[in-house]
Design brief:
heterodimer; A: 323 residues; alpha/beta; Rossmann fold; 7-stranded mixed beta sheet; 5-stranded mixed beta sheet; 12 helices; B: 431 residues; OB fold (Dihydrolipoamide Acetyltransferase, E2P); 8-stranded mixed beta sheet; 4-stranded antiparallel beta sheet
């Protein structure tokens, strides 16, 4: 067990999987010589050579098509898309190719698309989005969003070994997060299982990505009011751990769903509807939803901080649904 | 200055109430007849209206406080008089101390959208259905007006089933020998009066008479099988089988020398019990008793036993009383609440079918009433619409008959003072 930063844990996962399976290779913009803009792939080109760690031109559509072709023809590509904001460029490959080829032609599609999103870094409207719902919407894709360095490593290794396409969502504010990460090269984290961050009796907060950390802070704020809060990290956005959601609501009877993406048709809306579908009779209050408002993420720091979901907003939503 | 006191139809069935909600704040103007405070009785929430117009000048019983019937809840002053205490004085109902910050200062009544559906959370709805609690009698503690689980739980905790609730049924106990529920009231010693209620009622229906009798005798209130807190009888019932279970219950209480008072079906049970000799009976007072003739309002028995809603129960309750003003909405909801269990309604329907088949009183005890050697009184309301008063006629020269003018089938509720006086006369004549 070593203390690693989130970016280092990802790097370790990539290295271990490349050592384990020679068919694993990486490509993307500035990932080889530069080591990636967030340094996730640092040192890997030197270790595995330019054939397995490739810099590419700026053409996300081409990259996604390459990933699909490579996966269909027997390799395990790991594609990095520098910002989640660029995901619309790869949607055709995801919606019309990667997600349906197994259905149409019975071929496996073992590729991982890594990207990072989210606000809070002053990156402006075109580099701060959380487009989780855009990819989670597509049947045939798996979508994960780890928060802890250990989950980052374990889920990335599982994603690379998976025979279906996995969209791996990172967050730019998580890369420097430092925590224990198992050294064991066989350490993996199962896709489809939520993580209980803290247990509580009065209300459940279901959160994704960096919002899990804000929800933890919200739980502390609520504890000061005597409210016992359970925080569940939905690290697997799809498939969703429905059992964990139902179990928690059966205990607390109140739910807050938190996602950093837009509100309308967003991932939080999906969670809310899913809770209605499966836990309606256990609810003692309406499901509260905390999201980004339906607007671009502002560049101005005070404005950006004002619109992003945070611990105070989550705690307020929890109090409102408990009233 | 006018006192706001605990009155109203629900008062007949209760000794004390708990204040649930003030609808007016100190200093608010109130009009006579306007709703000012909701109290919770043993059976249901009762709304108390302003006795006069003016300003709510004093709140003497704050939310959550228990107060005796007849006690002063608050004071209405002339419009000009200043409020005696600041508004902030009122504490809130708190479901748990830990969640104090979550609870609004003033609980609000369950909000009813225009379609009349009560606002409640899915969980509250589910749990209330499981516990047979009518959502419309609950009070929401949330600012949204939505009934939540905590409101259902709070209501259930306050239900009269809880024998330990202070001020209510202090002596309630389940006797060891028999399963019938027995409540001891009145004086600790002296003559023992056993009160047997009518079909579809329970021990609480004696409350006005219990109050009128005061400490003049020791009172034993028995819930008949399938009524009140007594379980449903096993197998098919008869007046005799009911009397046998009552005898067991009395022996379980160590009683063998009692004065029987029976109303309606309870009157027939009292006759059967006296006939059996299972316990020593010193006098018999019958109020509009069954068992003296074949006629009875069969539609009433069936309709009353089956009623699950206020609008289906109210017409039958109106038949019981000569004075329709007794049957207020609060009285209807209190009665409905006491009959909210489907199992109880089913048991009573079955009992009615066994004892009053085809709307006829199958068992007759005229001969018993004639033969008994103890003092006997029959009291009947002149305007009884359930059992004809002429059943009292020709029961033998030694039976005293009292016909009460302007009274229906419920003399002990409609005129408890007169009934108490007559019962005590009968009891004294036995000694």
């Amino acid at each position: 067990m070593a203390k690693l930063r989130y970016a280092e844990a990802l790097n370790q996962a990539l290295r271990e999987e490349m050592q384990r399976d020679p068919s694993v290779f990486l490509f993307g913009e500035d990932i080889a010589r530069y080591g990636g803009v967030f340094k996730v792939t640092r040192g890997l080109m030197d270790e595995f050579g330019e054939g397995r760690v490739r810099d590419t031109p700026i053409s996300e559509q081409t990259l996604a098509a390459m990933a699909v072709s490579a996966a269909m023809t027997g390799t395990r590509p790991v594609l990095e898309i520098m910002y989640a904001d660029f995901m619309p460029l790869v949607l055709d490959a995801l919606i019309n190719q990667a997600s349906v080829y197994e259905y149409l032609w019975d071929v496996s599609m073992p590729f991982v698309l890594r990207t990072q999103g989210g606000g809070g870094a002053g990156a402006g409207a075109q580099h701060s989005k959380s487009l989780d719902s855009l990819v989670a919407h597509i049947p045939g894709l798996k979508v994960v969003a780890p928060v802890t360095p250990a989950d980052a490593k374990g889920l990335l290794k599982t994603a690379i070994r998976d025979s279906q396409p996995v969209i791996f969502l990172e967050h730019k504010l998580l890369y420097n997060l430092r925590d224990d990460v198992p050294d064991d090269p066989d350490f993996t984290v199962e896709i489809g299982k939520a993580r209980t961050v803290c247990e509580g009796a009065d209300i459940s907060i279901f959160a994704t990505s960096r919002m899990v950390l804000e929800s933890q802070k919200a739980a502390e704020l609520l504890a000061a009011d005597g409210i016992s809060t359970e925080v569940i990290d939905l690290r697997s956005l799809r498939p969703l751990d429905l059992a964990a959601i139902k179990t928690s609501i059966a205990k607390t009877h109140h739910a807050v769903v938190v996602n950093e993406g837009w509100r309308f048709c967003g991932y939080a809306a999906e969670l809310s509807a899913t809770i209605m579908d499966h836990a309606f009779d256990d609810l003692d209050g309406p499901v509260a939803r905390v999201t980004l408002p339906d607007m671009p993420v502002p560049y101005s720091e005070p404005l950006e901080m004002a619109v992003l979901p945070n611990a105070a907003k989550i705690a307020d939503a929890a109090r409102a649904t408990l009233r | 200055m006018t006192d706001i006191t605990v009155v109203g139809a629900g008062g007949e069935y209760m000794e004390s109430v708990v204040v649930v909600e003030w609808h007016k704040r100190l200093g608010d103007a109130v009009a006579a007849g306007e709703l000012v405070v909701t109290v919770e009785t043993a059976k249901a929430a009762t709304e108390i209206e302003a006795p006069a117009s003016g300003i709510l000048a004093e709140v003497r019983a704050e939310v959550g406080k228990e107060i005796e019937v007849g006690g002063v809840l608050g004071v209405i002053a002339d419009s000009a008089a200043p409020a005696a205490r600041p508004v902030e004085d009122r504490p809130a109902i708190r479901p748990s101390p830990a969640k104090a910050a979550e609870v609004p200062a003033n609980p609000v009544p369950a909000r009813s959208p225009p379609n009349g559906r009560v606002l409640a959370s899915p969980l509250a709805r589910r749990v209330a259905a499981q516990k047979n609690i009518d959502l419309s009698v609950l009070t929401a503690s949330s600012v949204s007006g939505r009934i939540k689980l905590r409101d259902v739980e709070a209501y259930e905790k306050a239900r009269p089933k809880d024998a330990l609730r202070p001020g209510l049924d202090k002596s309630a106990a389940l006797s060891a020998e028999a399963l019938l529920h027995v409540t001891r009231r009145g004086a600790a010693n002296g003559d023992t009066l056993v009160l047997l209620h009518g079909f579809g009622a329970d021990s609480l229906s004696w409350q006005p008479l219990v109050a009128a009798l005061g400490d003049s005798a020791s009172l034993v209130l028995v819930d008949l099988p399938g009524h009140g807190r007594s379980p449903a009888p096993h197998g098919r019932s008869s007046v005799h089988s009911l009397a046998g279970m009552v005898a067991d219950a009395l022996r379980g209480q160590g009683l063998d020398d009692v004065h029987l008072v029976g109303h309606s079906l309870g009157g027939a049970v009292a006759l059967a019990l006296a006939e059996s000799g299972a316990v020593g009976v010193r006098s018999l007072t019958l109020l509009a008793p069954a068992g003296l003739g074949p006629e009875i309002d069969g539609a009433f028995v069936q309709g009353y036993a089956r009623a699950t809603r206020a609008d289906s129960l109210r017409p039958w309750l109106l038949k019981l009383f000569a004075d329709a003003s007794i049957v207020t909405p609060g009285f209807v909801s209190a009665t409905l609440q006491a009959r909210s269990g489907a199992a109880m309604r089913d048991a009573q329907s079955e009992l009615a079918d066994a004892i009053f088949p085809d709307g006829t009183q199958a068992a007759e005890f005229r001969g018993v009433l004639e033969r008994l050697a103890v003092p006997r009184k029959v009291i009947w309301g002149e305007q009884d619409r359930i059992i004809p008063k002429r059943h009292a006629m020709d029961t033998g020269a030694a039976v005293a008959l009292h016909f009460l003018p302007g009274i229906g089938h419920m003399p002990h509720v409609e005129d408890p003072m007169t009934v108490a006086r007559l019962i005590l006369q009968n009891v004294r004549s036995a000694s």
